[in-house]
Amino acid sequence: MKKNSEDANVSIFIFSDTTADYPATAPRKDLEILPMAVHIGNDDYDNISTFISAKEFYTRMRAGEMGNTAMVQPYMAEAKFEEKLKAGYDVLYLGFSSALSGTYAGCARVAKELAAKYPERKIAAIDSLNASMGEGLILWYTVNKRDEGASFDELCAYVDHIVEKGVALFTVDDLTHLARLGRCSKASAMIGTLMNIKPVLHVDEQGRLMPYAKVMSRKKALKALVDGMEERMLPAAEQKKVYIGHGDCIDDANLVKKMVEDRFGIADVEVGDIGPVIGTHTNAGVVALFFLGNAK
């Protein structure tokens, strides 16, 4: 186990949740992903104990099935956190944007209660103010910083800094599912569909989904993601990792990857699936670009 610099006998265990869409290739030592359930048709999955692939999920959504999600249950978070505290770990939880789910609030409340119960240990909850692989990107930086030997307090301060820099830009084929689940107005969704507008959205400094641009073709929407990155990004040398997520549209995601690599010369650009929990809200066809910027 990796030791932190405050106590030679203490390691830091990191938790996050399935909304992070954390790639299987990313480092996972002393890390656990808490499940958020997704319901589609007559089936329930958490992709921890019961599984549905992104491909199958989006195929079913394209066929007209509707999805719904449930947040991480506080009792589960309490059991998981307490298990690691009892084992001698300090615990850091990085959560899905509090503007989009009650998961962070519930887990933060649990962390506060456990801090009082285990005063000899450290436990903290940090709001990623992000979603999908934007949360996953912050998690990637967090795990790597921990594994470099940061103390618990140093790690928390670092994560707070990275949260402020985590930028998420994404485009969807239409706003129907975002509107259905209350993520945008039904009027905006209807007008956009009628006019064949391809919206580009971002996650703002409060972790909310907000409009960024409106264009009239899919190709222009994908280019707008990369243009937005150019406007907001920290220098390319500071982009240790860039994530591109997609909802069963790998060719579009790879096109964005090529544009990012060609324009900025960034070496580590990884494409991954946007999983069913986030996909319930965005539907198939979503493409998202995640990087570090001067401002969210």
The secondary-structure class comes to: alpha/beta
Q: Can you tell me the residue ranges where pLDDT is under 50 for at least 5 consecutive residues?
A: 1-6
Strand order of the largest sheet: 10-9-8-13-11-12
CATH architecture of the largest domain: 3-Layer(aba) Sandwich
End-to-end distance: 34 Å
The helicity comes to 25-40%
Counted by DSSP, the helix tally is 10
CATH topology of the largest domain, anyone? Rossmann fold
Describe the largest sheet.
6 strands, mixed
Q: Roughly what fraction of the amino acids lie in strands?
A: 15-25%
Level-1 CATH class name of the largest domain: Alpha Beta
Summed up, the domain count is 2
Radius of gyration based on Cα positions: 19 Å
Could you say which overall geometry the principal axes of the C-alpha atoms support?
globular
Q: Give, in order, the helices and strands.
A: EEEEHEHEHEHHEHHEEHEHEHE
